[in-house]
Amino acid sequence: FFAEQPASRALVLCKLKQLGRLNGVAVGPAELAAACAIPSSLEPALVVGAASADVAAAEERVPLRIEAMARYLVREFPMPAPGGGVLAEPAAAAAWRLETVTALCLDGQRLRKLDNVDALPNLRYASFRGNLLTRVDGLERCVKLVELVLAYNQITKVERLDLLVKLQRLDLEQNAITSRDRLALPASLAELSLSGNRLTQLAGFERLQNLSQCYLSNNRLSNAKAIYALKELSRLIIVDLMGNPMCFDTHDYRLFAIYHLKKLKVLDGAIVGATEHSTSKELFGGRLTTDLLAEKLHHTSFTDLKELDMTHCSIKEVNLVGAEVTLARLRSLNLEHNCLTTLDGLFILHNLKVLCVNYNRVAVVTRNESYNERRPFLPSLEVLHLAHNHVSDLAALRLCCLPKLRSLFLQNNCITKVDGLAALTELRELILDRNRVRSLHAGAFVGQRHLRELHIEENRIKDLSFFQLPSLRHLYLAMNRVTDVSELERLDLPLLQEISFANTPVTRKRLYRPTLVAILKNLCVIDGVEVTEEERERADHYFFSQQHQQHQQHGGSAAVQYDVTPAGIQGRPPYKLAAMQFESDPSLGGPYGSSSALLDNFPPYSLVYQPNVNAPLPPPGVHQLYQ
User: Fold this and answer.
1) 158-169 CB burial, b ≥16 within 10 A, e <16
2) Do the bridges between strand 169-171 and strand 191-193 make them parallel or antiparallel, or are there none, so unpaired?
């Protein structure tokens, strides 16, 4: 590498003046004198004859070129000597105004330092190709630089070039730059060449958002994941990675690079066609792997990862085999808005507690039939979000593989029948809103002893049979098709505290609220409105009077038998409720009447309470109220 550089022979001769033969070629006195006579730093005398000024007009006439702009401008538009003198004379060089220089070409001058470049504040194009530079100090004050060529030197570090905020083209090929130190590159770069260096990674390249051409051939990039640093560069269309170890060691390297660099038009000197783009998508698209995690997280250490968000990644398949240890602490995973049809591949996440798979195409948890209650698929999972998927059959979903589930969200699917929940004995919350459920069968909620909250709104339910959940506290049935108040009698929910039938036909019936109040003794909220003690008392009084009237219509005697369940006693009332009209007796005041109005309609005999043997006893003081 060193021997190929243009200035290497002169450098050796400067150090070894007694050398008679170098690389098989004899060293003459003239060559030795020339090598020792050339200055090692940038001096005004060197600038003379290697500069150009006022290049604005010249830039417009630049043809298609492959050489550096500085070399072209100095050759075609050289700067004249002041007063027509000879530029090589020291007097002329001293009189020359260095601040007018806009282009400078000092290729092959065996320079070792750039210590006087700050005397050129208007420099826009500079070429120092084929020198002996080891550092790039001194260029940070040339803030107007647009193009800089530093190829074929001995530079090991790229420092302070990020201060050149107008720099668009930078050539650093054939140096000794490594990835050990951060590359201080300006974000304004459009073209960058680092070919023939010693780079092992591309950390920091993601900042170069204006980059359109990147040449990285013949480096030491061995891991194809290095390409991830270029993935977010939306303007990148030309990339050269030829000659790196990864090109030979990575299977389908070219398709891998094309898949990750979406806008690529030329790779390694060959045009990228539409066929290659489509093939790369089929081969590498839609897979959740550790490589994808590394790309998204910008690191490969997952041992401390507890929450992971992989939404909108077009994931079709999960393949995390081998990551059992590195993902052992993962507790929450968000896979919303992807293309999954099953959760196969997540089985290694033994400690996962929350999984969100909304807006996918899942119809079954796992197709592996070896998983069951005794051999769980995700043994620690407690919360599962499966809204907006392709679930139509709960039994086929195979929820039995998730026995620890406490919250299950299945809204916006195509479910018609509630079953397959028997194994979920720990379930506390179930969401079935916006499905196609028409009714429930006898085994719908078998095993749900701990279910406390049930959402089944916007379905097609007409029948309230089999709503028998001993621990249920909250039930939401809004926007269903229940029409008859008598259906409310079928609710066997002794601990229910809140219920909602909003926008359901039954809510338009006059006895809707009092029926619920009378049946569900612990009910506190109906359709978002709190149940008051006065409302509860009036409901009991009203149904008491209706029983009395029904008894009279069937020929009662002086000793009348009533079954009354007071508000403080649990259980279902022994009487049958029927739809009644409030205006059936105009003399009754209020929505259910008052105690004085009720007494006016009673016959002039005393009431003897002889409770039914199957009914709870009336509360103390009730006989005084109606005596």
Assistant:
1) bbebbebeebbb
2) parallel
Instruction: Please check whether residue 258 is in contact with residue 277, taking contact to mean a CB–CB distance below 8 angstroms.
Output: yes
Mean pLDDT confidence for 321-347? 92
Distance CA 453, CA 431 (A): 8
Distant-in-sequence, close-in-space partners of 511: CB < 8 Å, separation ≥ 6: 485, 577, 579, 580
- What the block records as the tokens of 2 is 């060193």
Question: pLDDT for 101-157, tens place per residue?
Answer: 889 998 888 788 887 787 888 899 999 998 888 888 888 888 999 999 999 999 999
Non-local (6+) Cβ contacts of 211 within 8 A are 189, 190, 191, 192, 205, 233, 235, 236
Q: What is the pLDDT of residues 495-538, one digit of tens each?
A: 999 999 999 999 999 899 999 999 999 999 999 999 999 999 99
Strand partners, 525: 498, 530
121 contacts 141 by C-beta, under 8 angstroms: yes
DSSP 602: S
3-state secondary structure of 600: helix
Backbone angles phi, psi at 500, to 5 degrees: -140, 125
Q: Which of 202, 207, 208 is nearest to 224 (CA)?
A: 202
More confident residue, 570 or 242: 242
CA distance 547 to 306: 62
